Amino acid sequence: MIIKSKLSIERELEVLLVAYDYCVLGLRGERLAKHRHISSATAARRIQQAKQAGYIREAVLNIPPDELQSLYPYLYRADLMETVHNYIGREHLRNLIVVPSVPLEDSNQHTLTNKERVGRAAAVRLLNLFDENTSQAIGISAGRTLAAMVDEIQQNSETIGEFNSPPKCFPIFGDLLLTPLHHRLYPLAAKYASSTLAAELAIAIGGAVDFHLNLSIPAYIPQGFIADANGDEVNQKIQTARSFVEAIPAYRMIFGKSQPNHERETEALITQVDTIITGIGGLENGHIMGWLSMVKDPVSTPHVDPIYAGPIYTDEERSQLESEGVVGHLCGTFITADQVDRFPEDSLVKTVNQRVLGTRPSDLQRCATRTRGKSSGGVILVADGAGKARAVASAISNRCITELICDSELAEELAKVKGIR
Asked: What pTM, to 2 d.p., does this model score?
């Protein structure tokens, strides 16, 4: 019988922690040593030991799930996770994971961004969920954080066991780039598209690769389509555009045809999905930001994030949306601090939301409700940044999500929004 000394146990723990910092947080050299409060020589030695033990394979984390779970108190902001989770209640949020945000002094260094950190943490969580072999239909939205997640899952694909029945992975969000000009200027944007991520995720986890849907439709009906219309003519034009989109086979298979009272056809994939992975839009300096930003000419506005360009509303409309209390969007649908749907008929929020094509908050609520009380599946929200906290709070209170994976900046602001001290 081998009895390990306290020093030996602490050394093994340090090796595991360094492996995580190296692979998931992307820390190297002096920054890793400083983060772990050890010398650079010790950090280099622990990295070498982690590689020899097989915990690091070509910069990919390879720690067994049971050992990784034992590290959680050391890896995540356990203080925030416990405080916020206890306040919100586990009946409202099954799981909460908070990764430390990049310190301000390291923001200009060659380290992982918050989006990459959150994306990698989400990958670790999903790899554990996939091991349970229960998912049959997985819907994934779009964005850079989700792309970082899928990329990490791809690099760890060999650790995923075979599914009894390969799950279907499909997109739940349309094209983020509205015009051919946007596509020509930002060819790499396709990497963050919902269709791309769904296809890559299917290959990585051994899903039904022969089942591939390309949701090559706009994520929304552009404001310019109805610019010269008014009153009933606006509704007629929106309905015409929606009917056209619903005739596209991939869209019809995922979302079905419009039904009375905004119900879904039972054959639509969105009603059968057991796992949804999505991001969320928020505010920046008090203003609506994200993929709904007003950009008519991306050439003259290079400072605007190209991934989220598209003229869905005018400047006047944006001001009115903000005055009506919009705090962000869920899969493109504007939400307020206390509502995600059923807005007043005369509100601009309701009018603009009618232009959104695809996933609705009610689809997320349906999926979340179906998986209440279960250990896997549901709606997993992956997000970073303090500006999204109010939108996240609304998504939680309106029962739209099951799990939240975020950075400490968002979690700290969420605590303020909820009045947690």
From this structure: 0.81
